[in-house]
Each structure stands twice: as structure tokens, then as C-alpha cells.
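Help needed: design a sequence for this.
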């Protein structure tokens, strides 16, 4: 018999860290991830580390997606994983993306820096968002397991039994 349950949406926190006020990309990310089936809590721009952590705790989020375009993400994200652990956010998936450093640093170098800071994934400004959504689903599945969310019957799916 076919499983007729549906999963609740995975909650993700989204925002632009530090003093960065670039909002257009942030709104695009919100619309994209919502359309992909995630419950998005968008904190907007100029978000502190503490605000990200508080929102993740309050919403029982599976992931925090941080973006930065003004090049100071490396500075703004230092100590972020430690703050998450200090506040009891373990497990939590951390992604960073955008123009994360000042200058023309090769992306491989940027990625290595952010992974050393505790980020699970790091993305360049020109990443394919469909791939990010696929990777995020896989990371949630691996980190939280198949039963990471409550399942509930979908009363609106017709089966042979209720026809």
C-alpha cells in the first residue's frame, strides 16, 4: 500500500549578515526557497549572529542560510558555529553564500576558510539555486534523518479505502 502521509515543511532561517544592506538577492532567495517547499523565516538585512541563532531556536529550524554581498562575510561569520553550539543549536546546518570576502580571492580559498569556521556548505555568488535546494534537502536528510519532522495523514488524498 502506498504511504499517504505528507511531511511538514523544513524550516530554514535566511538573512544578510552584519552591516550588509543588500536586500534584492535576499528576497529572491526567500521566494525561491518558499517555492521549493521550505518554510522560510527571512530576517532581512543587517542581521547579527545572535538574531540568526535566536530565530533558529524559536522556529526549530534545520538550517541557517547566511548571505553577504559587501565582502565582509568572513569577518561577520567568525565564531558563528561556536555561538550555535553555545546556545544549544546542535545539530544545525550552516550555509554561507555570496560575495563573502573582499578582493579577488579564488572561491576554493574562500570555501576552505568558511568550512574551517564550521560552515557545512559555502556557495559562490553565481550558484545554481536548484542545486542548492537539492543539496539542502540531502543535508537535512543526512543530519536529521528521515523522521526529522512529524508526519501526518493528508486527509485530502483519496485512497481506495475512503472513496
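Sure. Designed sequence:
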Amino acid at each position: 500500500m502506498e504511504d499517504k502521509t505528507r511531511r511538514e515543511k523544513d524550516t530554514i532561517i535566511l538573512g544578510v549578515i552584519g552591516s550588509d544592506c543588500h536586500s534584492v538577492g535576499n528576497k529572491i532567495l526567500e521566494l525561491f526557497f518558499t517555492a521549493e517547499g521550505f518554510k522560510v523565516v527571512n530576517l532581512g538585512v543587517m542581521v547579527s549572529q545572535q538574531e540568526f541563532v535566536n530565530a533558529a531556536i524559536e522556529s526549530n529550524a534545520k538550517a541557517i542560510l547566511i548571505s553577504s554581498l559587501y565582502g565582509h562575510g568572513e569577518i561577520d561569520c567568525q565564531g558563528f558555529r561556536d555561538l550555535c553550539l553555545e546556545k544549544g543549536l546542535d545539530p544545525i546546518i550552516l550555509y554561507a553564500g555570496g560575495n563573502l570576502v573582499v578582493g579577488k580571492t579564488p572561491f576554493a580559498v574562500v570555501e576552505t576558510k568558511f568550512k574551517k569556521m564550521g560552515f557545512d556548505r559555502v556557495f559562490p555568488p553565481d550558484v545554481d539555486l536548484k542545486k542548492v535546494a537539492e543539496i539542502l534537502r540531502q543535508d537535512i536528510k543526512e543530519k536529521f534523518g528521515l523522521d526529522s519532522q512529524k508526519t501526518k495523514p493528508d486527509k485530502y488524498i483519496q485512497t481506495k479505502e475512503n472513496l
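Confidence is low (pLDDT under 50) at residues 1-6, 148-163.
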